[in-house]
């Protein structure tokens, strides 16, 4: 949407929540975004806001239809809860069943400030840790709310019958997890995401049975439809027969996950994509902090060019595993032949108080640093050891098996090495994306009526996400935030009753079909995956764990060239009106080829280092990220201005009133 | 040790649910033994695409054994012969140079073929809709630690809850019954205090729905347990039967 059209949309839209919608307040490219953070002390903001939000009369809720795209923790929980409240819900997902969303793969756990172990945890501490862990690039008010509702999530999940780990007395068990000094992580073996998702899925299935949710699996959303500037529907492709379908609603909620697969190799599921978010971006939703990506320190190293994805080894393993490399570069001895005195437990040595539990960005960069010094291990030299020998001799094999058995088994299946006998080998991999569509405190994007939840939005994790906090955020957004805030929008906006016959749907469908026809007609020489792999290599090399201005500038040119070649030389076999997985991937890769450039633009604009964004020009003497709070204490939100045009920069200044801006230190 | 092998594949190709389908033969060459089975299929598909042919359709997503999206019958065994392994976690080191591998979709009355190896398993969602939940709305739940669950019980519930809904049990059952799948959910919830109040009704409704959807009866063939990638135990079926009997008893006495 052009800036003008955007303004007009804002102008036709004044009254929801009784406050003005985000208005560009300054001219030129320094316009500040209004996040609509409620006033008052931080601990009271959410209560107060809930009180001030307009309510939809219970009898009127059934007159509203809400579209939810995605059935991960965010979309599953939102769909179920909205239906319970009485709204009509239409829910969409790519997989054949909503139970298979990528959230299913989360292993380690979910945080909450219950303080059951009585080790000094509190809502304030969870809030504080998350703001600091995010390297002061998250919005305080959102993070505080997240910490507040974290306890409700656990209560809700237990009530649903989620079999969390228990202690001998039958109480819930907790463990400490990636970067936290208290034990606040709830878990279900190494399958926490699976169990939480199945909980949300069962709540969703209950509403399907009740007739309140209509479920549309094997559908890919390819466009958001705007009527008078408001999101009023979507166009999806039926992945079984290739037909286009139009769906109208009073509001649209995107819960479409993260964009880690822009790197080709990541821990994300194969269908994870940026398409839904990127289509929304093209329709006027601002994209915030796209360069904030998270590299997870404990993944199984890459071992061949045929590799299709990377597998995470939950970082809960860092509670008991010790990370080390040989002291001497180029040491090719087997791990059991390297004596204790010749091992470098570099995290324990460098960060005595956090040791192996430093946040992910710190652990990842240190692993890379060791490998760059030639101390990496394994066939490729791109790995470090994660050793359980001490834990096994201290606690016994059974205790370790109980905690990590399924992870050890998974590791052995993939590598044919037994981690009970020999240290695991790990290396960092792309895992999570903190950037996402910009949303205000109500989780609404800059397009009125378009809400964004879960990993697809940008709001809570700043420049680095702490472990066990994505599951928390997805469920917070879906169970406890959106169901209130969407009411404020619906109650405060005149009901439009748009139908799919509206010309906006027609135009949207025409555009989507046109793009598919173009992809089908190229008939070039390279496969979709081939392009995707090339893009992934460019992104990993120049916009990955460490970045520099020269590399970024060069990568931008490389991506432009690759994109041009893609549109001339990609080969998509088969036909469009069929189950065609190559076509599905081609559409996603086409978006990644544009989106990758946006990441680079964002990375270049942010001339500082923070969290997962590490620009080699900005580091402390100890090689930690060096922030520039005077110039970059903001969220960068990008507005699409037309294909082939530079996107326009907007900023949301971040104000830290409750957690003091400091240099992070985990020493 | 990584090495490479050459294989002959006999792959089921079927254009759609109405097409009759047939086996086609392909050669997979220079396959690294470090590859997963699906990565091997990726390589074959890349070649087919370059050769101007249609790649083999197969479902997959997480590629780490948890989403339940992948699965087909490999040499007559659902998810292949490795125990406790999904197809995406099956590695080529378990095959030998020169092997011929037959690859077919999961077959069952309730699972229609969509294309090649991809089938429609939405019937499994319908079984869950019939009662695979605790009837609790969002909000208002009591403190999580107000419900005590003995560790052994939580562990047993978790064992059952691990089902990934892949449908291999159905595909390997001579009657194409979904009893193992259904019993896993019924058991998980019947074991936990939160699920007890609805346990009997849940069993009755889920089994009834299973029958209506065209799944067969369970006649204790136990093949499901042997092929289940999550090693879900058939003791769950016994637990389901107990709940089912209770339900029958209640409905008569009501
Ligand atoms: C291996 C792994 C382990 C993890 N472990 C943890 C952990 O222990 N703790 C933690 O807190 N976090 C963890 N995370 C992160 C966490 O799992 C994710 O951030 C979170 O689950 C994302 O949930 P979501 O609901 O936002 O999106 P997802 O679960 O990714 O769901 C996206 C949904 O959107 C749908 N969708 C996407 N695009 C479209 C489209 N165009 N049209 C229609 N539908 C679409 C998909 O079908 C899917 O249903 C882990 C992540 C990975 C990869
Ligand atoms: S019981 Fe086992 S085989 Fe059956 S659906 Fe569940 S995981 Fe798959
Ligand atoms: S692809 Fe998810 S279980 Fe195999």
Question: Topology, pairings included?
Answer:
The complex is a heterodimer of chains A (667) and B (254).
Chain A: H1 3-11, H2 45-52, E1 65-69, H3 73-85, E2 88-92, E3 110-111, H4 123-133, H5 140-159, E4 185-186, H6 192-209, E5 213-216, E6 219-227, E7 230-238, E8 244-248, E9 251-254, H7 275-282, E10 287-288, E11 293-299, E12 322-326, E13 343-344, H8 346-350, H9 360-372, E14 384-387, H10 389-395, H11 397-415, E15 424-433, E16 436-437, E17 450-452, H12 470-492, H13 503-522, H14 528-543, H15 549-569, H16 581-605, H17 629-632, E18 634-639, E19 648-653
Parallel strand pairs in A: 1-2, 1-9, 2-5, 9-17
Antiparallel strand pairs in A: 3-4, 6-7, 7-8, 10-16, 10-18, 11-15, 12-13, 12-14, 14-15, 18-19
Chain B: E1 4-13, E2 22-32, H1 37-50, E3 73-74, E4 77-78, E5 100-104, E6 112-115, E7 118-120, H2 122-129, H3 151-161, H4 168-172, H5 179-191, H6 199-212, H7 223-227, H8 235-253
Parallel strand pairs in B: 1-5
Antiparallel strand pairs in B: 1-2, 3-4, 3-5, 6-7
Helix pairs in contact in B: 2-6, 3-5, 5-6, 5-8, 6-8
The site of FE2/S2 (inorganic) cluster has 13 residues of chain B, from loops.
Could you characterize the architecture of this molecule?
The complex is a heterodimer of chains A (667) and B (254). By secondary structure, chain A is of the alpha+beta class. Chain A is 36% helix and 14% strand. Chain A has helices at 3-11, 45-52, 73-85, 123-133, 140-159, 192-209, 275-282, 346-350, 360-372, 389-395, 397-415, 470-492, 503-522, 528-543, 549-569, 581-605, 629-632; strands at residues 65-69, 88-92, 110-111, 185-186, 213-216, 219-227, 230-238, 244-248, 251-254, 287-288, 293-299, 322-326, 343-344, 384-387, 424-433, 436-437, 450-452, 634-639, 648-653. A 5-stranded parallel sheet of chain A has the order 5-2-1-9-17. In chain A, strands 11-15-14-12-13 form a 5-stranded antiparallel sheet. In chain A, helix 3 packs parallel to helix 6 and helix 5 crosses helix 12 (470-492). The two termini of chain A are 47 Å apart. The model of chain A is unreliable at 1-29 (pLDDT under 50). Chain B is an alpha+beta fold. Chain B is 35% helix and 15% strand. In chain B, helix 3 packs antiparallel against helix 5. Chains A and B meet through helix 3, helix 5, helix 6, helix 11 and helix 12 of A and helix 1, helix 2 and helix 3 of B. Residues 163-169, 180-181, 184, 228-230, 232 of chain B line the site of iron/sulfur cluster.
């Amino acid at each position: 949407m052009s800036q003008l059209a955007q303004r007009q949309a804002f102008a036709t839209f004044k009254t929801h929540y009784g406050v003005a919608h985000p208005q560009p307040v300054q001219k030129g490219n320094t316009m500040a975004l209004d996040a609509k953070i409620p006033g008052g002390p931080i601990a009271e903001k959410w209560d107060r806001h809930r009180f001030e939000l307009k309510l939809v009369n219970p009898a009127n809720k059934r007159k509203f239809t809400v579209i939810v795209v995605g059935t991960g923790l965010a979309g599953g929980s939102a769909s179920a809860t909205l239906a319970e409240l009485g709204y009509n819900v239409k829910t969409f997902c790519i997989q054949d069943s909503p139970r298979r969303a990528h959230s299913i793969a989360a292993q380690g756990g979910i945080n909450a400030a219950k303080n059951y172990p009585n080790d000094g945890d509190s809502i304030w501490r969870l809030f504080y840790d998350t703001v600091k862990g995010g390297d002061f690039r998250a919005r305080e008010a959102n993070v505080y709310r997240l910490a507040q509702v974290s306890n409700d999530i656990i209560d809700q999940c237990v009530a649903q019958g989620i079999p969390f780990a228990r202690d001998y007395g039958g109480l819930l068990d907790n463990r400490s997890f990636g970067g936290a000094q208290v034990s606040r992580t709830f878990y279900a073996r190494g399958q926490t995401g699976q169990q939480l998702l199945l909980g949300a899925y069962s709540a969703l299935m209950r509403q399907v049975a009740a007739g309140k949710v209509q479920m549309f699996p094997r559908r890919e959303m390819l466009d958001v439809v705007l009527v008078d500037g408001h999101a009023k529907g979507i166009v999806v492709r039926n992945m079984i027969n290739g037909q286009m379908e139009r769906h109208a609603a009073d509001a649209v909620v995107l819960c479409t996950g993260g964009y880690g697969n822009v790197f080709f190799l990541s821990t994300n599921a194969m269908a994870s994509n940026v398409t839904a978010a990127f289509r929304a971006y093209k329709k006027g939703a601002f994209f915030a902090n796209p360069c904030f990506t998270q590299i997870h320190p404990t993944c199984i190293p890459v071992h061949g060019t045929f590799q299709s994805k990377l597998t995470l080894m939950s970082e809960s393993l860092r509670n008991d595993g010790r990370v080390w490399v040989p002291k001497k570069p180029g040491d090719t001895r087997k791990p059991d032949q390297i004596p204790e005195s010749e091992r470098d437990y570099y995290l324990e040595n460098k960060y005595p108080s956090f040791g192996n539990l430093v946040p992910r960005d710190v652990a990842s960069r240190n692993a890379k640093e060791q490998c760059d010094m030639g101390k990496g291990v394994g066939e490729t030299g791109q790995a470090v050891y994660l050793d359980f020998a001490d834990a096994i001799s201290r606690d016994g094999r059974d205790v370790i098996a109980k905690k990590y058995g399924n992870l050890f088994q998974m590791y052995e299946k993939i590598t044919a090495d037994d981690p009970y006998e020999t240290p695991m080998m790990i290396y960092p991999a792309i895992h999570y994306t903190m950037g996402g569509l910009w949303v205000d405190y109500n989780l609404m994007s800059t397009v009125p009526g378009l809400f964004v939840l879960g990993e697809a939005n940008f709001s809570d994790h700043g420049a680095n996400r702490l472990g066990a906090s994505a599951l928390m955020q997805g469920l917070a957004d879906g169970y406890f935030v959106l169901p209130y805030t969407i009411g404020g929008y619906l109650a405060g906006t005149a009901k439009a009753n748009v139908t799919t016959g509206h010309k906006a749907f027609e135009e949207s469908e025409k555009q989507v079909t046109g793009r598919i026809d173009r992809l089908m007609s190229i008939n070039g020489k390279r496969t979709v995956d081939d392009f995707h792999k090339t893009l992934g290599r460019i992104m990993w090399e120049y916009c990955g764990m460490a970045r520099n201005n020269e590399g970024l500038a060069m990568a931008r040119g490389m991506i432009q060239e690759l994109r041009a070649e893609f549109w001339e030389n990609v080969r998509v076999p088969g036909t469009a009106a069929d189950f065609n997985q190559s076509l599905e991937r081609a559409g996603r890769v086409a978006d990644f080829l544009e989106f990758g450039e946006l990441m680079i633009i964002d990375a270049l604009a942010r001339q500082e280092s923070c969290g997962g964004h590490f620009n080699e020009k900005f580091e402390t003497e100890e090689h930690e990220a060096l922030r520039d709070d005077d110039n970059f204490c903001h969220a960068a939100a990008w507005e699409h201005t037309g294909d082939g045009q530079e996107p326009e920069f907007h900023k949301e200044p971040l104000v830290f009133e409750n957690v003091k801006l400091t240099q992070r230190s985990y020493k | 040790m990584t090495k490479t092998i050459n294989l002959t594949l006999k792959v089921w190709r079927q254009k759609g649910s109405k097409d009759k389908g047939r086996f086609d033969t392909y050669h997979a060459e220079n396959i690294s033994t470090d590859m997963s089975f699906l990565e091997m299929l990726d390589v074959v598909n890349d070649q087919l695409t370059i050769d101007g042919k249609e790649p083999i359709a197969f479902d997959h997503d997480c590629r780490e054994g948890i989403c339940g999206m992948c699965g087909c019958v490999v040499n007559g065994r659902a998810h292949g012969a490795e125990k406790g392994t999904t197809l995406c976690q099956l590695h080529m080191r378990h095959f030998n140079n020169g092997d011929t591998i037959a690859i077919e979709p999961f077959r069952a009355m309730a699972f229609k073929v969509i294309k090649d190896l991809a089938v429609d398993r939405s019937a499994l969602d319908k079984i869950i809709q019939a009662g695979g939940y605790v009837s609790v709305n969002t909000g208002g739940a009591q403190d999580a630690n107000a419900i005590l669950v003995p560790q052994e019980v939580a562990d047993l519930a978790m064992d059952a809850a691990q089902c990934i809904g892949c449908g291999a049990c159905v595909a390997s059952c001579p009657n194409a019954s979904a009893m193992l799948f259904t019993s896993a959910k019924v058991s998980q919830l019947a074991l936990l205090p939160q699920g007890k109040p609805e346990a009997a009704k849940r069993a009755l409704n889920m089994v009834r729905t299973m029958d209506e959807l065209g799944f067969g009866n369970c006649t204790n063939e136990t093949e499901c347990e042997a092929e289940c990638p999550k090693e879900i135990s058939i003791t769950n079926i016994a637990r389901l039967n107990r709940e089912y009997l209770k339900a029958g008893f209640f409905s008569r006495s009501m």
